[in-house]
Structure formats: C-alpha cells, structure tokens
C-alpha cells in the first residue's frame, strides 16, 4: 500500500516539473508511510522526497527513537532514511545522524534556491510558508493530497471495516451496560475502555455521550447528568485501527420510544436510505445533502437539522469529500463517507443516526451494520 502512495506523490512531482516535495502534517505523513505518527515532533516532523525518489524522514531529536521503532521495517528495506534534527546538536548524543537547524535550513541543504518544490501548505504556519516562498518556487498540493486520500484502496477499506466493527461491538456492550441512575461520564468512561479492550489503537475522536435535553446539542461532551427513565441517549464514537478511523452514531431510548420519537427515527432512517441511492460515482455531494434535507422537509423537520449530511473518513475522521449544501466535491468509487442526518429540538431532545458507507457504482454500500436505534 505504501509504495502506491509514494508513487502517486512522485507522479505529482513529475507532473509539475519539481525537484522534490516537502510533506508536513500528521495525517499526510501517516497516510504516506502507513504508520500513525500522530505525535511526531508534536506535528513538526516532515517527509522530504527528491525527484529521483529518495525519501528522508526528518524528525525532532526527542522523537527519533520512537520514529525509528515505528518505521523499522521501512528502514530495513532501504525505503526511507531517518534523520533527526534540532536547533542545536547536543554534544554527546547517541544518535549519529543529526542536523542542526529548522525546516527552512534543512530544505536549503537539499534544494538550490529558486527550485520548484511540492509542498502541502495547509499544515505550514504563515511564517514558515513566507520563508519558503521567498527562496523557492512553491507549488501547493494540499488539495491534491486530500483528493488522493479520499479514494480508498481495498486495504484501506478493510481497515475502516475493522475499525467500524470494533465501534459497533462497543455500542452493543454499551447498550447492555446502560441503566437509569448512571452518569453520562460513567458511560463515556466505559465506552472508551471498551474501545481499547476490543482492539482500537486509539479513539478516532473524543466520544460523545449526551442524554435527555442535552441530546439537542449535536456535539457535546459527557457530564455528571444521571440517565433517567424515558431519556434518549445519543452515543457518537469512533475507533482507530491500523491508522484508519471509524465514525458511527446511535440513539438509545430508555423505556422505549413514544410515537413522536419513533416517527422521527423512521424519518431519519428513510432519509439515509434516500442518500444511499445517490452515493454513486459522479454525484455531486451537494445533491446528496439536498436530498436528505428535502426528505426531512416533507415532514417539517428540516429546520431542526443543524449540520451537514456527512464527510469522508480515512486516516482522519473528517476528510474529503464534504457532503454539505455548498460542497463542490463529486463522489468517486471507493470513497468512504458518513451519512448522518439529525433532528435537534432545543430544550426537548435530539436524534442522530450516522452510518459509514462505501461509494460504489450500484449506490452506497453500508459498512456499518448495527441496528439504527435501540430501545431499553
């Protein structure tokens, strides 16, 4: 998988007639190397690639042992060379390959002034970008990298499927664990513990647990509020497995759903089914969003839908494409996206069902397979 990704990057270098590339940002580095270097230099590590294909991994000196261990398999193959850097070189460091200076200084050692360099500017501070632009011809490929990442290989899809299965198993366990009198924070702690116990490398994002009137907040964190009989509980969680994320939301109704809640759950489920039919290559993401809103509008609930319909999922839990009213993105085969309509009535309750879906020529194929809601 990694070779294909680096070859795509080399193609971008060649297409632009560039001398090489400097790739920053934890998600891009993780994607290209196939290893989650999520705290690599607190985000300050980078990949430097020459047009002939030689790849250097520059990491801050304090991170070098960890990066060596994570990428040992690539070093053994001769695929990459790891180089530590620091503003100054300690006198007696055990690690021999160390360069002094910052990103700007290191690039100067590889590329002559006025060279054309591929850079993902999305992850650079304005100060660093200004320095680079003053010395080299910078070609911004941030959008191109996001586009490449949005279409998943079979290996990536398998990892997302595994991350989703972990998440679904945790929700199943949470449903059995929930009882009136329990605090939201106790349920959140249980979920986070179970995610790791069932094989997640990490949480894909901070788990959302909301109950009662707090479910009308689409994004919130658990509190000390105690769950009550007749409460709605909304759980939104994700696992990270072998570098890839899942994202799934399910409502749980303690004591069973009344007629209004049941009607809204059916509407949300049907809105998702409407969207699935449109998830084919060539469909504009804005059209998918509009179809969901129009379906909710039939029943007068569109005004209670407070966010976009969905987003791509991969090494980041939110990435391209964006399924929103003003999105310019167009669906492609093997994109993985969420479809997550919601109804939020302030001071009363909120409901959201979120499915993870693969875009195919026959329409959306559900990756998430869990019941869309639960009644206790």
Task: Describe this protein with a few key phrases.
alpha/beta, Creatine Amidinohydrolase, Chain A, domain 1, Creatine Amidinohydrolase, 7-stranded mixed beta sheet, 4-stranded mixed beta sheet
Percent of sequence in beta strands:
15-25%
Helix content: 25-40%
Structural class: alpha/beta
Please tally the helical runs, counting DSSP H or I stretches of 4 or more residues: 11
Strand order of the largest sheet: 5-4-3-2-1-6-7
Kindly provide the radius of gyration, computed on alpha-carbon positions and rounded to a whole number of angstroms.
23 Å
Any idea what the CATH architecture of the largest domain is? Answer: Alpha-Beta Complex
Q: CATH-wise, what's the superfamily of the largest domain?
A: Creatinase/methionine aminopeptidase superfamily
Unreliable residue runs: 39-43
Overall structural domain count = 2
Mean pLDDT: 91
- Overall 3D form: globular
Largest sheet: 7 strands, mixed
